[in-house]
Design a protein that fits this description.
The complex is a heterodimer. By secondary structure, chain A is mostly beta strands. Helices cover about 0% and strands about 50% of the residues of chain A. The chains are: A mainly beta, B mainly beta.
Chain lengths: ~120, ~110
Amino acid sequence: KAGVTQTPRYLIKTRGQQVTLSCSPISGHRSVSWYQQTPGQGLQFLFEYFSETQRNKGNFPGRFSGRQFSNSRSEMNVSTLELGDSALYLCASSSEPGQVTGANVLTFGAGSRLTVL
Amino acid sequence: AQKVTQAQTEISVVEKEDVTLDCVYETRDTTYYLFWYKQPPSGELVFLIRRNSFDEQNEISGRYSWNFQKSTSSFNFTITASQVVDSAVYFCALKWGNNRLAFGKGNQVVVIP
């Protein structure tokens, strides 16, 4: 079956602009998470959505937002872009609602590489 | 707070040598899960192995093996008889709070033919 699909794969923006990234999870997966990867901070959790509701949010400013649609596809938006937002943004999906006692595995997409000039 | 530490940054080995990656984690939770992911140059994180906090049995899967020691909060990963295709960045991760993963900084593994 198809994996996690992220679009676009690469994009270049300038400071002050906004960007929207898209993620299509594996069919049947209802949980979608987003991570930011930078050389300095590594992989950091942004937020997680399940059934169109944000269930978890990482320590990022309000410029970072997301949403999930009824078909489980998710988008994340970054407004008023800053140079430091240049990163690889990874989306992951999983097949069951995240629970501490669950062992569901997150399947990641190839990412969207954002460059802010 | 949840924290994962991977001390080594870059590890170079000659093909067919074994390589062991160290991972130390911190958590106050009694129930948690540990993972290893591989990130090749393409960027996608590929799941390798997982272990829950109640099962300290060490296993071997093909050329991969892992050593989970709860007493020292360590979850080390070994690639046996390394191959050039194993060249990638390897991440140790701790699962907590639903689907929230805390990642280590990663180990860049370079396998020299």
